[in-house]
Amino acid sequence: MRKVALDLGARKTAYCEVRDGKVVLRGTENAVRDFEAQLGPEQPEAIVAIEACREAWHVHDLLTSWGNQVVLVDTTRSRRLGIGQHGRKTDRIDAEVLALALDRGGIPAAHVLSPHRRELRRWLGVRRALVESQAQLVTTARGIAREYGAPLPRCATDRFISNVRKLKSDRDLDAVLEPLLKMLETISAELVGVEQALAKLCASEPVVTLLATAPGVGPIVAASFISVIDEAKRFTSAHHVQSYLGLVPSEDSSGGKRRLGAISKKGNKYMRALLVQSAWIILRKSDTSDPLRLWAQAVAARRGKHVAVVALARRLVGVLWAMWSKGNAYEASRLAVASSRGLTEAAQNLEFRAEALKKASKKPSMKRFTAAATPI
User: Fold this and answer.
1) Nearest to 94 by CA among 79, 106, 112
2) pTM
3) 2, 122, 178, 192: which could join 46 in a potential S-S bond, CB 3.0 to 4.6 Å?
4) Cβ pair 263, 245 in contact under 8 A
5) Strand ranges (DSSP E) for 243-299?
6) Backbone angles phi, psi at 124, to 5 degrees
7) Cα separation of 245 and 240, whole Å?
8) Which of 241, 237, 235, 244 is nearest to 267 (CA)?
9) Are 35 and 8 in contact (CB under 8 A)?
């Protein structure tokens, strides 16, 4: 089968076809559609490699509709293929490196999201942009008010506009704040429509309701988790999902020593931030008897709250993945049994280590042993 790679640039797309380790055809076009003469339905089927990016899903669907097989390349591993080596990185070179890697085999492929989950992610992205714009406008308004010596009272974002307009403040301040308040009104109105669209999409996703039974997890966090993971069964373990979201410690085990550092922070940054927010909610506001909160409080007592929150976010990922995989709603009692088992094992390990240290301290040192063995 033909082996082809496309490097999707902002203005141009580079084409490279290889056979038996040699380049047989190159080309550059303005858009992927312009390669119909090489990859269209009238041409022999090809395996086409493209790097994961914004337009990759659209290109994937187009090339697949033409009868080709598409391999989406994981950009976090593209350097191991040789892309960008020796300071040489152009669309032409990148396309050639991808094509040759495809011809050799073993290319690190990325997961292609299902169409419904793509749609869910798009609307979540729009909502995120509106919410962040709303927060920025509120922050700006509060800063301006402080400059006038009239700090605005704290309140929920949805009540901010009405509360500000009720205040009898300086006319100059009112004039400066009015454009911001009008923008906030527009964004608030748009948010209503976006959240209605999201509600409609989530209604066809029963797993959103399932995951939202976990403490600290609302429909937005649940929907975001689904839009990133797509299929629970494509992961073999909770640790695999935690690693995918960048919540496991980074590791350097070179030189025969295992060194663990801060979390890797790989994967979807926004999803990781949402999980950390959920962890804070569990630690501060959830049921005081909830096993997740009790577990996090135990970690916080030893390592501090910030470490505990990240650890709790990591554990929450495992809980959500298990709920999704097994189709079970959140059950505190079941988790409590697992938590107590884990704490018991940890306590036994500590006991064992303490006993081993105690025995080791009673053993004579090499210095004492050598001295005793030396004849007078």
Assistant:
1) 79
2) 0.80
3) 2
4) no
5) 249-252, 259-263
6) -65, -35
7) 9
8) 244
9) no
